[in-house]
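Suppose you are handed a protein chain with no further information: no name, no annotation, nothing but its sequence. What can you learn? This example shows the usual starting point.
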Amino acid sequence: MNHPPIRMYATKICPYCLRAEQLLRRKGVQQIEKILIDDYPERREEMIRLTGRRTVPQIFIGSIHVGGCDDLYDLERAGRLDALLAPQSPERI
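A reasonable first move is to predict its three-dimensional structure. Written in C-alpha cells, the prediction is:
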C-alpha cells in the first residue's frame, strides 16, 4: 500500500520507538524515515522546534504530527490510524 511518508524522531535504545515502529509495520508501513537524534544531536533541536516535545519517539504521518508511541496506539484504538495511513488522507487529528 502507498502510505504517506512516515518520519520518526527516535534513539537507538528507546523501547517506545521500537514499539511504535512495530505497530506501523503491522499496519503495512514499509518505509519509515528514522531520525536518530542520539547520532545527530542537531536534529533533536529540530524535533523540539517542530513538536514542542523533548521525548522520543515523535512521529509524523505526512505533515501531521501524531505525537509519541502512546498517541499512536491511542489513534489505533480509536480506529483513526488507518485513515491517517491511507494515501492522501484528508483526516486531521
